[in-house]
Amino acid sequence: MSETGRRLTFEIFRFNPQDPESKPHMQSFEIDEVPYMSLFMALNEIRETLDPSLQFDFACRSAICGSCGMMVNGKPVLGCRTQTSDLPDRIRLHPLPVFKLVGDLSVDTGTWFREMAEKSEAWVHAEKAFDPEAIEDRMDDELAQQIYDSDRCIECGCCISSCGVANVNDEFAGPAGLNRIARFAMDPRDTRSDEEWFEVISNENGVFGCIGMMACHDVCPKELPLLEVYAYLRRKALSTAL
Amino acid sequence: MTAKITSTDVLVIGGGLAGERCAIEAAAAGHDVLILSLVPPRRSHSCAAQGGMQAALGNCVKAEGDNPDVHYLDTVRGSDWGADQAVSRIFADNAPIAVRELAHFGVPWTRVKGGKNHYFIKGERVEIEEALENDGLIMHRDFGGTAKWRACYAGAGTGHSALFAVDAEVVRLGVTVRDRAEAVELIHDGTRCYGAVSRCLRTGEHSAILAKATVIATGGHGRIYGQYTTNATINEGMGAAIALNTGVVPLGNMEAVQFHPTALSPSGILVTEGCRGDGGYLLDKDGHRFMVDAEPEKQELASRDVVSRHMAQRMFDGFGVETKFGPHLWLDVRHLGDEHLRTKLREVWEICRDFLGLDPAEELVPVRPTQHYSMGGVRVNAEGEAYSMAGLFAVGEASCWDMHGFNRLGGNSLAETIVAGMLVGRRIAATVGRGGLDVETRYASEALQKAEERAAELLGREGDGPSAYGIRDAMAEVMIRKVGIFRNGDDLGQAVAELRQLLDDCDRIVLRSRVPGMNPELTFALRIRNMVRLAHITAKGALARTESRGAHFRTDFPLRDDASWLNRTLARWTDDAAEPDISYEPVGELDVPPGHRGYGADERIEMAMPVEDYNRQVEEGQRAAGKLPTEGVL
After folding, report:
1. Are A64 and B515 within 8 A, CB to CB?
2. ipTM for the whole complex
């Protein structure tokens, strides 16, 4: 008997693209639940005691690095902060959709986000070079907090996987991409003009590609204010168009 | 598929803050740069730094009078005089530039709000009027072991914001990043480094990268303490290990291991020193603020080594809260209030909710000291070039540059990543263009073959043998029980012997999985031998050092001994040797003579020789230890 009285059954998607013999399938594993068990603990136990070939990604195991996005019973979440006590006895795990599969639960979010950053030029377009002799430019603390609020995105990909548009349109910036654009658009250190921003924001791959289902808002582990982000981008686009 | 042998000007191993800052300096100067990273760079462990980055801007009332001189003094005292003071000086002078440059890259630093502000200082709520003329400048918060408020911060996500800003520059400059790639072998001829062999963590394939300059920026190696660390799972020290495996490059001060006072119990997840900096308390099981008795002057904000020792002692004395996971103490931030916790300490509030299911505005947070930072690493000169190996550099936590000595101050490592990355990057940019890549390709093919054969040999072993995970768990128990906060000769002697045995066990590991591709079990089995070697050096250095300095505390030698131990440990390990070779070099020229830190123990064994005599033998001693001449670029 486990300490919590539960035996958990994990049904895990398996496929190793490097193995010509491997075919996509679901595989079941059973382990005893222990108190405070996270999916980080559970998956490592499965790998270390039941199947050493199982692939998954964790790094910080404290919901800060964004490595461990996965579908848990159909919902994209961070595995490390998901406690088994919040889940039923049968737990189905799939890799995040949209991203290229590396193997089993591991997906290539790095390439996707790098391309997104390149396409939207997600960096500060500074007017002047950095002057090591000068003191910093001033910024109102409230504005700094607003930028920080969007800057907190950890690019885990949960929102992308939950997004109906991102699932069918590879070019769509997606919630995390739109958030990243807004983060730089609201930053006065970025000197891009309204017209330049209009090009980035106002097409079917920008904010007007969003069809408003807002699953992204529900699944974001960092609880980013995505509703406000889209409203801000729409306002910015419209004010430029008018 | 990656080509078997490629070349670049600069190869940076590790995509965290130090590696990326170094990469952009070289790339901006027009050099071809390739970054290898275990994970997408934005997932590097730099992102987990929470509370702040130290730089003496002196922008708020509690920072008045601060400047790089004061920061430098704090850093040397924090190091318990183990630091290379010349390096601490370079660091403190450049930290303000690094922080302001990050503002230029887009970090949304918290700013000074002119007018009335309320802070918690030493248990009291105080009202302070910030000057209107400072409104909008970068704000500071208090951290341990500092004379002034100095830590610049963005919520409790400072490392995250800094890493994203620096990686945005990497993207802007078009620097190539090869993620899910691990450097497993350096290419060298015994005196010069020519790049590294990389193992792809998508396919398991090896390839060689030839480079004029190779930079190790792989972070710390806290995972030699297994789960008893705040470090990410990727902090296994493979950069330090491949440098050690050359048999030529020394690792410095590996016995200097920092325990952070406030990791969550039992998960080991970090909550920032900023909690105490902003006025949080440490309480024992009776709700008593024991740090006020232990350190009347600094209270909860003494340096981390000192606070961690008082906490461990408090628990040994029976004042911990007993649980099935062992004892813990309490962090109390309730009085800071809901709004403060949800803004300035937002990530702490989230961690408490996500991992403990509690609201820190209402409840106490269970904490205990946990392995956190590796002061030790690849020993380099002031320009970041490795001892005894030209063309090899190290930056950040992977290095022993050595501004931290035997204890690093909170917020100094985040600042170090940017300062060292910037300066070492500048040094590389200035010299890497001097000539072609003059290397016999046999060094590359030999290193490649060595790496491939190692993997094939492991895969080919049959029969019964230990598992890599079992060895990891055994190593972790040895390290936490015998090479922890309080150390003694008996325990350390046993630890050295047990780790030596575990090293032999590594040669008998038998895999259960032989799947094609990266094979996670093979990947870990290839690392564990390296991890045990790092652990062994840590224990051996700790056994040899019969004094107490900074984070290295010997109950059988409780005093700092400046007569015998004002030096730095260097460990080299050749392939054919059963044990590492331990030697010593002078810490560096003493500008600030050894004295009392202002917290912690005041008793010590004084230097036997005059400071001038000590200083006279520094350069010669360090050259003899393998230090390469600097180029005078900084």
Report:
1. no
2. 0.98
